[in-house]
Amino acid sequence: MKNALIVHGIGGNPTLNWYQYIARKAREKGYITYIPQLPSSNKPDLELTYKFITEKFLFDEETLLIGHSSGASLALGILQKLQEEIVINRTILVSGFIDPNLTPELHTYIARSDYDKLFPKAWDWEKIRRTSGDFIIFYSPSDPFVQMHHAKTMEEKLHGKLVLVPDALHFSVNSGGERFREFSELVEYL
């Protein structure tokens, strides 16, 4: 059964940004969608999130995993922690990052220490790569919070497809206004 999990970013919730729009578009393509309110959303915690998600969501070969911002980091961490025999269909990472070294502008709002429990001790890129059929990585060169090297590293390590979207900022209502209630560029990858 086709299922899609959308993982929101820090301080987020299921109603923000383009999440409901993408969930609706995924349902139109036959997916059952799940956008949970994550525990400890103000200080993302990989271990807590993994336990929470895996108690409620079944990953299989028809799963589509979508993560935004720190939700993309959580998505990678979840893939790293999944059992070896589980291989999902596709992972879409939007404005994701691989460590807490983000822009000074972001750190005026969010302390680096808020990400202390977000990442695994070390990334196992080979394991992550084996756990998903493919990877689509969305990044905007105008992102005020996440530098390009995060997207380029994910593209390289995951053998993913990098999709650059000009002037999309952080793909969020907070950074770019109400136009980010939709995300048409992502729809073709559902």
What attributes characterize this protein structure?
190 residues; alpha/beta; six-stranded parallel beta sheet; globular
| Individual helix count | 8
Low-confidence stretches: none
Gyration radius, rounded:
15 Å
User: Based on helices, strands and strand pairing, what is the structural class?
Assistant: alpha/beta
Query: Biggest sheet: strands side by side, in what order?
Result: 2-1-3-4-5-6
Query: What is the β-strand count?
Result: 6
H-E string? EHEHEHEHHEHEHH
Quick check: average pLDDT? 96
Write the layout of secondary structure elements.
Elements: E1 3-7, H1 19-28, E2 32-34, H2 46-56, E3 63-68, H3 70-81, E4 88-94, H4 104-107, H5 125-130, E5 132-139, H6 148-158, E6 161-164, H7 173-176, H8 184-187
Task: Write up this protein.
This protein is of the alpha/beta class. 33% of the residues lie in helices and 17% in strands. The chain has a 6-stranded parallel beta sheet, sandwiched between helices. The model has no long low-confidence stretch (mean pLDDT 96).
